[in-house]
Amino acid sequence: MEVLESKWKSCGSVLEASVRVLLKFPLCDRCLGRLFARLGRGLDNSERGRAIKTLLAMLLSEELLSKEELEVLAVNGGLPVHAPPGGEVRQCYVCRSELDRVIVELGEKAVRRLREVGFEVTGFLVGVKTGSEFEKREREVIGLLGLDTWESVRREVKRVVGKYISKELSIPPDFINPDVLVIVDLVSRDVYLKPLPLLLRGRYVKIGRYVSQLPWYRRNGSRKYKLSIHDICAEFSKIFGGEDFVLHAAGREDADARMLGDGRPVAIEIKNPTRRSFSSARSQSVELPPWIRVEVSGRTTREYVREIKSRSARKTYRVVVFVAEGLTEKDISKISSLSNTVVHQRTPTRVLRRRRKDVARRRRVYDIALNVLSKYLLEVLVSTDGGLYVKEFISGDGGRTTPSFSEVIGKSAEAVLLDVVKVESML
Ligand SMILES: [Zn+2]
Predict the structure, then answer these.
(1) CA separation for the pair 396, 109 (Å, rounded)
(2) Cα of 64 to ligand 1 centre, how many Å?
């Protein structure tokens, strides 16, 4: 019985809080109900408010409140507890009794705007701008009560408008990867649409050399390499009717290095696309030169972009090393001993020429496998942390990278061919 009593107390506290707030502020059904939005599932806030008011009208009498107080409740809540003097119910303090109408209007406006857009929408998200008078006055009311059952007016508008759009247009809200943001402005009472970029995930393989990831322009404006991965991705952007696009990649290889194996993870961010549904037929319609393969496997999220850009994934390289002085047995075993070493590297001189900062980095080399091709040539498989400059790990870059192949054998060694054979990826 005691348990029951304490439960009943919380029922009483809803009514008590309602009386307290209505004695001070006139509130419409919706704005009163919103104070208790967390109580009772599947109800609209205006239903909640109406129910509370009905209950108060049934329970309140002059034994509980003074005649004057009952009069205040009559004009502030429209409760038939006492005939309001003059019979006028006051305007809602929070919304000036406009919110019911405003929500309907904004919902209809949003649907109209979405019907008019020139692009396909498969998922949307509603956002409500801050700064309306509703919110300021709502804070005053909440401040009086110290409740934890309330919902903000912004949240209510967002929820109700979202539900309406979903019902009218049969498209689901999408909280993770929406196509468009529906921005509701309670001040101007207007709705704006903000189309979001389309993110596609994929991988590229480059079996030819002298292809850069991004277009590389010389000072005179001519291109250093005829083709780039970026150029291929532009074709994808066109297929989806994009205005512009950004290529995000999990690192990059030198233009003269091949990118083999499963390829390198990328994301193509297409701005203002007119089409969004992904079908592999679309991606296959991109004409590729035979030495480049860009495979797009579907839509992805901002999270994925952050992930591929932040992780310095482990990589495996194949390098053909040339030693002009010739290699001895001893040299081979010295090079083998570079397995499981931490390499200290300052930014390579060739990279500094492109006005990059001179920084020191440490990268672990996990494993080195050797295949002697001739007295002067060595084929090497190097497995390493992402971000190691492999060519410099061979040459030593005048002592800027240490240890290096050149350093341990005391002879000049040079990478003549470089391939990335694997980019580790959990994705
Ligand atoms: Zn109101």
Answers:
(1) 65
(2) 26
Tokens 């006005």, located at residue: 355
- Give me ligand 1 centre to Cα 144, in Å: 16
Domain match, 274 and 325 both? no
Whether 277 and 183 map to the same domain: the answer is no
Q: Is 254 in the active site?
A: yes
Ligand 1 centroid to Cα of residue 378, in Å, is 80
- Could you tell me where the beta strands, DSSP code E, fall in 214-359? 244-249, 258-271, 292-299, 315-323, 341-346
Residue 92 counted as domain residue: no
Count of CB atoms within 10 A of residue 370's CB? 15
The catalytically annotated residue of 254, 256, 262, 385 is: 254
Which domain range does residue 388 map to?
Answer: 315-422
pLDDT average, residue stretch 363-374: 96
Strands 413-423 and 315-323: antiparallel
Q: Which two tokens stand for residue 412?
A: 């000049």
Ligand 1 midpoint to CA 112 (Å): 25
pLDDT tens for each residue of 228-284: 999 999 998 998 889 999 999 988 899 999 999 999 999 999 998 888 887 765 666
- On whether the pTM is more than 0.85, the answer is no
Query: What is the Å distance from ligand 1's center to 358 Cα?
Result: 62
* In 262-396, alpha helices (H): 280-284, 302-310, 329-336, 349-352, 390-395
Same domain, 226 and 156: no
Which residues, 6+ apart, have CB-to-CB distance to 46 below 8 Å?
28, 29, 30, 33, 100
What is the CB neighbour count within 10 angstroms for residue 161? 23
Based on the domain organization, do 122 and 208 belong to the same domain?
A: no
**Is pLDDT at 285 greater than 70 in this prediction?**
no
